[in-house]
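// run 5 | inverse folding | seed 20
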């Protein structure tokens, strides 16, 4: 397993766990650094984590844990538009966000589950499994705190924007997936 990969996972998930799962620690960090500096630190750690994850994942030995089903890759292709539309809807006051309450978490969990079906190796388990578990924990933590993104007014216009943004992201990912991640779609 690549050290870059493990370091990237830690750099990405540490601030996210602090922000969503342990809000008391987040509050202390906000008080210590101020909101602007905390957000900058959060963003830099997350971005550095993602870069290291991407590089390290490609360098990690793909120790196979299970054989994926022949249809699994096509399931990923079929499920990804929905996952990306949900992620796009997370910051838009539309009906999608109102009805799902935690569209980012649901979209990430869907992305993770789909990719776990198609990739049965150890680095994939750590990557997609980690994101999937985090997404579920984040949604649960939001419910416990009473944070519901779906409360308030909703506009169909934002649902259409989320749909177009999600589908545009899907088209870009389909086109550049092999170049960006070193894996052909099918």
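// decoded
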């Amino acid at each position: 397993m690549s050290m870059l990969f493990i370091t990237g996972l830690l750099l990405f998930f540490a601030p996210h766990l602090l922000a969503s799962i342990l809000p008391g620690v987040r509050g202390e960090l906000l008080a210590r650094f101020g909101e602007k500096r905390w957000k900058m630190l959060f963003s830099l750690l997350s971005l550095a984590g993602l870069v290291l994850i991407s590089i390290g994942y490609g360098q990690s030995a793909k120790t196979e844990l299970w054989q994926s089903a022949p249809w699994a890759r096509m399931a990923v292709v079929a499920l990804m538009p929905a996952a990306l539309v949900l992620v796009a809807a997370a910051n838009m006051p539309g009906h999608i966000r109102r009805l799902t309450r935690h569209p980012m978490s649901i979209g990430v969990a869907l992305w993770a589950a789909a990719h776990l079906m198609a990739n049965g190796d150890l680095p994939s388990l750590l990557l997609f499994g980690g994101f999937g578990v985090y997404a579920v924990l984040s949604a649960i933590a939001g419910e416990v705190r009473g944070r519901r993104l779906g409360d308030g007014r909703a506009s169909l216009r934002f649902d259409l924007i989320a749909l177009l943004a999600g589908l545009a992201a899907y088209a870009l990912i389909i086109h550049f997936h092999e170049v960006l991640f070193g894996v052909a779609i099918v």
